[in-house]
Amino acid sequence: MTQGKVYDLVVLGAGPGGYVSAIRAAQSGLKAAIIEKEKVGGVCLNRGCIPSKALIKNAEIVSVIKKASEFGITYDHLKIDYSVAVKRSQEAVSRLTQGVEFLLKKHKVDLIMGRGIIRTPQSLTVESKTDQKEIQAQNIIIATGSRARSLPGIEIDGQLVMSSTEALLLTRLPENLLIVGGGAVGVEFAYIFSSYGVKVTLIEVESSLLPREDAEIGQTLGKAFSKQKIEVKTGCQLGALKEENGKVLAQLLSKDKEETKVFERVLVATGRTPNSENIGLDQIGVKTQKGFIQVGPFMQTSISNVYAIGDVAGKALLAHTAMAEGITAVEKILGKDPPPFDYLSIPNCVYCQPQVASMGYTEKSAVEKGYQVKIGMFPYRANGKAVAIGETDGFVKLVTDAETEELLGAHLIGIDASEHISEMVLARRLEATAGEIARTVHPHPTLSEAIMEASEDVFGKAIHIWKGN
Ligand code: FAD
Q1: Active site includes 77?
Q2: What is the pTM of this model?
Q3: Residue 3 — very low, low, confident or very high, per pLDDT cuts 50/70/90?
Q4: Are 117 and 40 spatial neighbours (Cβ–Cβ below 8 Å)?
């Protein structure tokens, strides 16, 4: 075994949480190393956020072309080649992962390729095909991420039954597809494939799509998807799957109905499982719960110089959460005094069309917390820009504290919602009130005016909508 260097910080896993932590540590004068067993960029860059958003861009173009006649644009011959979309998405992946490697190098972060295992709170080993080395660490950040989780009794073979990883690389589209799970990943793939003409059936066991979102969001998305000819079945779960003649027989179980349907492919999008096994957690006594590493408000584990961030810590399985948690951990290591991590100020975005973006409390969770709430709603159909561009689906819903007017939560569904939620996150961080947002002049005509009008609606004073008799 080669004896390696001593580092101020060793990061295990080079996904978005890991590489951001390592770069910030290096920027702050720490000697940092990062260990990666597969590819720099993790799930997000290689088989998550980036390739899926590239495919969604293609799907949006196809959707626009389909309604081009509304804009007076017609065509005789249209050729759509999905394999080019996949190629383009992989080019985006490669460009961005190379960019991260460049940044690590420029910041003098040592990138060590191999499988890392924590041996003591101050040391790790890295195993590669050719070598095993030991490295010393004053501090460790675990950022080993997560992988797709299947349902009990359902085997993901990567062919007929896929996870998102295989779905991103599919170059020949099936005629029909069953997607199991109406969370973010399931609905994004439903949008991608259905835009390209695949007959998609999307099942979700809860009563609406995106069940963690405000109830009205999921219902509205369900209606929008039905208009897009996606068959949405809520309150429906997968029974058995059986292969027959190269296709899959899927048993779909609803409260009052049981049916068996034939699909060319099945995509299982039922959540993620943490990569917390075989990395030495038991040996050093790091506590986990259902596999997710337990952390405090500064991302510290049960061992004070060992931190865990991102999907493996399981608080909110999003790339920007992983990155922000990494920065909190590094600031704690540096002895700065970071604020405790605030998950209510984390935006959640889903990039299908209409897009969904939210932060903070839903109406239901705010009431359960004991708040007296006042709601402000504004539909995009009453927004000038939305009408001008022909994208009137959806609304802005604000949840505010009736007593203090403070913004508790924001829930957007509509075109470009993900670009507007940051305004709401900033408002919440600065403890802005509905009145202050309402008095913030928004440019006309923009979709962002819907936020201003929803704030005005908290006081029953939205200008561009009549809510009386
Ligand atoms: P990961 O990205 O999982 O990276 C962990 C890294 O650790 C991996 O590279 C892995 O190889 C490495 N590793 C694991 N064990 C070891 C070991 N023992 N030694 C060395 N290396 C190890 N999130 C968003 O915010 N926006 C989106 O639009 C979005 N879209 C998504 C779409 C899909 C299809 C999927 C599946 C996920 C999406 N996500 C999205 C979620 C996002 O990808 C994750 O939240 C994010 O990647 C988590 O980052 P992470 O750093 O915690 O871990």
Answers
A1: no
A2: 0.97
A3: low
A4: no
